[in-house]
Amino acid sequence: MEDTISAIATALGEGAVGIVRISGPNSLVLAEQMFFTKDGNTLSMYESRRMVYGHVEDETGNTVDEALCVFMPGPHSYTGEDVVEIQCHGGIQSLKTILGLTFAKGARPAEPGEFTKRAFLNGRMDLAQAEAVMDIINARSKEALKLAIRQQKGQLSTEIRHIRDALKDVVVHLEAVIDYPEEDIEDVTFDEVRNCIITGLASVNNLLSRAHTGKIMREGLLTAIVGRPNVGKSSLLNCLLREERAIVSEIPGTTRDVIQEQMLIEGIPLVLADTAGIRKTDDFVESIGVEKTKEILAASELAVVVLDGSEPLRIEDKEILSSIEGREHVIIVNKVDLPCLLDLEALKAKFGPQNVLTLSVKSTKGVDAFVQWLKNFVYGAGGTVEKGVFVQNVRHEKLLSTTKESLKDALMAAEKHIPYDCIVIDLRNAINQLGAITGETVQDEIINEIFARFCLGK
Ligand SMILES: Nc1nc2c(ncn2[C@@H]2O[C@H](COP(=O)(O)OP(=O)(O)OP(=O)(O)O)[C@@H](O)[C@H]2O)c(=O)[nH]1
Ligand SMILES: [Mg+2]
Fold it and tell me: Which atom of ligand 1 lies closest to the CA of 255?
């Protein structure tokens, strides 16, 4: 039998109310030894799921705090076990003292994510739903929250199960043909198998095509603004942030360090890094800055290269442009309020006309077009996150990619009329990989790893 665990469920700090949560078979007995109702009854004398007013007492009979207490019996609780929640004043001392009393009465400190882990192990939610719980807590924008809620409600899981069940049906049928070749089982033709695999593959591809958006909504888009000194990188950051965050000056080499800021643009969580202008320099501090710029560029998902349109392309610009090859990028030709001395057509021919934008931070001309470019980059052809299932989680994305490979192998085998046994192996792999998303087929280690990333008390 599971033991009883407890933790502070609310954030530690000064708040109106704080909650200590207890889960496990001894929750009620344990709570009754420290929580006393106003009219001298025990908690179990009240209806379950009813808030009861009273106070918490320590071992010497001193009142620790006044509190509200609720008992939620399993299996219809968050964890699926008996749960008690004590709501006290949201001060650190009060919460810690009450938590300490739960330990003294026999509860064990909960590990991070252990309540949700128990919910998963007790079948209250599947693994993808459990992972979405943390996404809800960490949501950086309304859009990210919408996606996390959809996943928590089980939309992704339903879709995955749908694909998986269809593949399982094919395997069952193929195995029957393999096991009982002499029986008169309706023989699945290679064509039928092929069609089923193609349908599964299309669904997996559809999910993967939206993974890019989902990941950005969950984690934010790390964007590095790079360029040689004085082109207007810090000016662009300030303009997007709508505040004078970074120092702007006409002296090249003004920004020495990476300045990272989070912002929301049209619901897109951007982590925007303004960097030191890249150039060869004898200045020691500046050269460290240039190294940092290179590091952040390597780590970023999107490179925004800023050029000064009022000057011809310099050797430093060319070096920066060649360093972003193979990376997601957009090129901003800034200062177009001044006469343009850059060969825009040559840039467009090299980097694609859609990826070269003209802009003036000074007059704000072209800023809207840049925002539109970002929206297209993040939301893709769909242009919105309003409908549909978005894969947000890197673990899910990886599993879907390996599923795709297994299905492609199975498809090739079906097309080449390779014996059914081989197709079954590929299909089984795909089924297992999909099952790892929802947690049906996943190793304990991975489960532990996932919940260890949760916050305490959740
Ligand atoms: N005319 C004009 N000047 C601009 C524009 N954007 C920036 N500037 C000017 O260009 C100069 C350099 O701007 P910064 O934003 O400091 O340039 P930076 O790329 O951050 O430069 P470093 O930090 O030195 O690498 C400042 O004098 C800005 O006022 C623009 O659109 N038009
Ligand atoms: Mg700067």
Answer: 23
